[in-house]
Amino acid sequence: MKAYINNYELLCDAGDTKSLMEAIYANKSAISISEDFIKDAKAGLGIMQYDNIYSLLIDVTSKVLKQSNLDNFHNTLLILASSVGGMQECEDIFYAQGSYTNIDPNRYSMNALSDHLDNEFKFYDSRAISTACTSSANALLLAKRLIEVEAYDNILVVGADGLCNSTVLGFHSLGVLSNKQCTPFDKNRNGMNVAEAVSVLLVQNQKISNSIQIKGVGASSDAYHMTNPDPSATGAISSMQNAIDDAKLNIDDIDYINAHGTATIANDNVESLAVEKLFGSKTLVNSTKAITGHTLGAAGSVEAIISCEIIKAGVVPAQTGLQELENTNINVPTQNITMDIKNIISNSFAFGGNNTSIVLGVCE
Amino acid sequence: MILYIKQYSDFIDDNSDIVIKNELKKIYKLDTRRQDKFIHLAIYGAQLLKDKIDIDCYDELYVTSGVGDVDIVEKTNTCIYEDHEPLRIFDFINLLGNTTSYYVAKSLGIKGKNIFQISDNFTYINTLISIYSSLKNSKKNAIICTLDLNSIPSQTIKRVLGISNEDKVLSAVNCQKLSLDKQNSIAQVEFDTNIYTKDEIKQYIKDCKVDVVFSYRCKEFEHKNSRFFFETMAAYKVNSSIKKQQDIWYIDCYENRYKILKIKSFK
Fold first, then answer.
1. Lowest mean pLDDT among A117-131, B52-66, B75-89
2. Which CATH code, of 3.40.140.10, 3.40.47.10, 3.40.50.880, 1.40.20.10, is assigned to A3-361?
3. Between chains, do A220 and B93 touch, taking CB under 8 Å as contact?
4. Cβ–Cβ below 8 Å for B70 and A109
5. Cα separation of A165 and A81, whole Å?
6. The pTM is what?
7. Contact A285, A328 (CB under 8 A)
């Protein structure tokens, strides 16, 4: 059984899917510079327009249900992917009241978001995956595997993370936050932009007219260092190679690489090296985090939606923010390129060397 | 869906005088700095398993928990709000689920896929389904590390779990090496994606020839409820049945929805 992405929608700093793609092709970053989170310091952040993450989850998921061929989600598995789950609301209450007493336990833990969606839509079953920045890529990986063994016909993958003090201050403490709009793969990049998003994809075992197929998934673990990737790039290479093998494709079959590309020194160095070693200098690669920022647990699903849209549009976007390419042995486009795109690989890499790659493409 | 259990390890912290951090340092010569108790518990369970069976570097790793590490959430919030201190790097890192799976992977020398899956219901069985679907493709073996940490004082964790004040929440880690290959296995665990109603379960177990064990959450069935609980208790019950060489059916429940695990121990 094969897995198809049949419907999707998102909200991020650039707006919904349509607005995001317009921003990507216009090379217009949606990152704003904020002084709200860090004392006496600026940070580039990807900030959404929304009331609260719980109502936003319902809203985006409802849109996907409406687009779909389903009447409801009663025969659908929910896989929620998040790095900090209900932390945002938990922080708000704790900071306001200085106590945990009035925090609803059901909106507190890592899987608070999946419970909330489950209560609203009555999914057949639900679970949550939390592997930081690979969370929703791993949710897509799991969705493909579950459909292959015919465990479920319909799987809703939801990536969701809201901005909160714990993540912004946490990345600040690591010294990897940029104080401006991030510039992936640029020689003078100075760090990442923490961002927020809710992205929802319906994965089914039946294809429809505009399906995008999840052709291959791959994962690996560096087990090298808690926050830094293996500098030899073996984990990143292994993850991409595993996904391409799973798709039964060759390296040359990949038309474009949607990189993890956080714009930190460590990630971009290692990912560039991995791309160089595996693909050489021919295959196009860029990072759309220059527009969206790093949406953490939602990143894999946000970039899966972007990849679906790029396949449908047949246009690889230019790398936004790029002034001077650091690794000149990789092919980062400086202008939008119209071409026939059959297969894309999308990378997600997380702390602890937790690597996941997804190959998406036109249906076989 | 059937997975074969090659070996297991189990440890309940509250029933033991063992100081895990010291054990990790003294016996396993592991660096325990910068890690919290949740991570220590996971690594300890994994090392107990490693003592009993070889771990391949390409085994897949699944760390799973009911509610994760409640203590670290409280600690980081307190640091920012009450102490007005900058968030400490390793508190932030330990907040993330895959930090635990990273340290477990590193201690076992695993380079394969590692996943931190969390589910406040059917935690163990949901992860078994994930593992089964992955191994069918990869043909590798998997390590599952199920753990839950009681926070002190336990009011918060009891509220999160929905446990009455009279009952006790325990810290526990239960690990297993799982495979699709029956050879040299000590037990099998059978499961599926079905969800049953209470009436369906009653009908289902009517002719059962083995012991039926109900989880703490199966309040509507007359049975001897344990007065202690942790969300990954299903894994503990599986390990206990293997230890006693018993065959059992384990019934778990969440909000009037039921799932079944069938455990067969190979004598």
1. B75-89
2. 3.40.47.10
3. no
4. yes
5. 19
6. 0.92
7. no
